[in-house]
Amino acid sequence: MPRSSHRLRASLTRAAAILPLAAIASIATAERLPDTRARELLSALKSRDAAPARRALREVQASGDERFTAPLIELLRADSLGIVATLDRRRIAETLESSSGQPLGDSWSAWVSWYAESDLVPPPGFTGWKGQLLSRIDSRFGALLANGVPSRVRVEEVVWGGVPYEGIPALDEPAMIAADRATYLRPDDAVFGIAVGEDARAYPLRILDWHEMANDRIGGIPVSLAYCTLCGSGIAYDGRGPDGQSYDFGSSGLLMRSNKLMVDRQTNTLWDQLTGRPVIGPLVDAAEFRLRVLPSVVTTWRDWRKRHPGTRVLSLETGHARRYEPGAAYADYFADAGTMFPVPPTPRLAPKTRVFGLEHDGEARAWEVGKLTRARLVHDRVGGLDVVLVAPRPVVEIEGRSVRTGIRRRYRAGASVRAYAAGRQRFVSVGVDASELSDEQGGTWKLTEDALVAADGRRLHRVAGVQAYWFAWSLHHPNTSLYEAAR
Q1: What is the pLDDT averaged over residues 145-171?
Q2: Would you list the domain boundaries of the chain?
Q3: Is 304 helix (H, G, I), strand (E, B) or coil?
Q4: Cross-strand partners of 411
Q5: How far apart are CA 337 and CA 327, in angstroms?
């Protein structure tokens, strides 16, 4: 039986318990409207004139055309944002329920989560329609979402994140200062640490929480540190694309499954922050286009400075007026178990469990950060690659006060996890100062940012991974395996 038939039968079964007979009949007799008429109705639904908008909604409801599920969900959000005020919210919800058989009322977040697991498609012209609707918030959204723009994701799942285009200002070639001048930092403050060759840099989370993007040059190469506060991941990308072009990025103001969509300034393409791939825009047409992930680590300022005495660190002089204190921007969110934007269910772990993830040869694997820090040293395998994961320090904990609520909250920011290609080499312990590993033969290996280095010069290269909330990692890698510690 076709999937649509299964969905129809399931919808009728659910509808029998919650909807009037007339609504059930509309599901049973639903037919797609002609594409030309569907486009006309789309246009009318976002009209600022109430009469044509209401007539269009009645016709959509009478047709039962399930392709209008996505536009109706958009209209629920638009109503709550005040950018469409011509339609009755209750009638929008009734139309959604009658065409889908889902008893979700007027809860936009519930409909978004449900839709993400469906195989529904929108009517023709939806992408441009959605871009025009969001243009009422910021005109630049219309160029990002226009009819004919290539996409490798479902545009229906793209949502507005509450800020305008580049409303979260990126730090471009930010001012850096020597470690001894960073008197604003406390030893336990969390930082993203990146080293390219001898050039080591620290990006404190208390600053990046407000900016979420830093475009810099480290070791002579362009690097974009893309930080998605909503999905708990900071990833350092080599800004040089496979086409030889260098790219720098800003925050688009748009999200997908509570994950940041960043935008490059060169082509206005939207990119997935967690994968480094273009998802909507001109670069999507490239057969295989992906930024290279550079090794980075979440650690404390004390530990990073001890490992890299010559490190430079972000200056507070960013050119922006922000309260650069721990937790000021997101303490409430980081301390809460829920997501700020709707996501589909993520079984196996709680959505905001912190994990460390690796991909290799088409396979993905994740390790709970808490389990890694308790073990300190873990040998495992992903995609045929033998790896050793080293997590010698406890999870970094932060206490801060949110500027929004004024409440002091305690939350976790991740941990110092590094992965290396182990080959046949086995390690048995981490040194007391966490700078060395001991192997089975009694040899010692120095732990550096780009490799494990033996006394005789042998090197085991670093494997770049991602720390993120479980919901973000698992939604991007639905077939990911999950490490279970031996009991």
Answers
A1: 97
A2: 3-156, 171-314, 333-482
A3: helix
A4: 398
A5: 16
Q: How far is CA 303 from the centre of its chain?
A: 27
Which tokens is 219 given?
């070791």
Determine contact, residues 201/311, Cβ cutoff 8 Å: yes
pLDDT digits (tens, 9 = 90+) for 363-374: 999 999 999 999
Structure tokens at 202: 């620290």
Is the distance from CB of 65 to CB of 77 less than 8 angstroms?
Answer: no
Q: What percent of the chain has pLDDT over 90?
A: 90
Contact 27, 11 (CB under 8 A): yes
User: Most distant CA pair in the chain: distance in Å?
Assistant: 81
pLDDT value at residue 77: 97
100: exposed, middle or buried (Cβ count in 10 Å: 0-12, 13-18, 19+)? buried
Q: How far apart are CA 305 and CA 180, in angstroms?
A: 10
CA 42-43-44 angle, to 5 degrees, is: 90
Nearest alpha carbon to residue 158 among 106, 119, 112, 114: 112
Quick one: which of 378, 364, 483 has its CA closest to 437? Answer: 378
Long-range contacts from 242-246, C-beta under 8 angstroms, 24+ separation: 242/286, 242/288, 242/289, 242/290, 243/286, 243/289, 246/222
Tell me: the pLDDT tens digits for 190-205? 999 999 999 999 999 9
* Residue 201, number of CB atoms within 10 A of its CB: 27
* Cβ proximity of 398 and 413 under 8 Å: yes
Q: Which tens digit of pLDDT belongs to each residue from 217-263?
A: 999 999 999 999 999 999 999 999 999 999 999 999 999 999 999 99
Read off the pLDDT of residues 332-365 as tens digits, 9 standing for 90 and up.
999 999 999 999 999 999 999 999 999 999 999 9
Taking 3-state DSSP, the helix, strand and coil percentages for the chain, each rounded to the nearest 5, stand at 30, 30, 40
Residue with tokens 């007391």: 432
The pLDDT value given to residue 464: 97
Q: In this structure, what DSSP letter does residue 438 have?
A: E
Long-range CB pairs of 427-434 (<8 Å, 24+ gap) are 427/377, 427/379, 427/388, 428/377, 429/377, 430/376, 430/377, 430/390, 430/392, 434/303, 434/392, 434/393
Q: Find the helix packing angle between 69-81 and 108-116, rounded to 10°.
A: 150
Predicted local distance difference test score (pLDDT) of residue 285: 82
- Give, in order, the Cα–Cα distances in Å from 406 to each of 50, 209, 305, 335, 385: 42, 17, 31, 14, 47
d(CA 47, CA 56): 10
Q: If you average pLDDT over every residue of the chain, what do you get? A: 93
Mean pLDDT of 371-386: 97
Q: Which residue has the tokens 């810099």?
A: 216
pLDDT value at position 31?
76
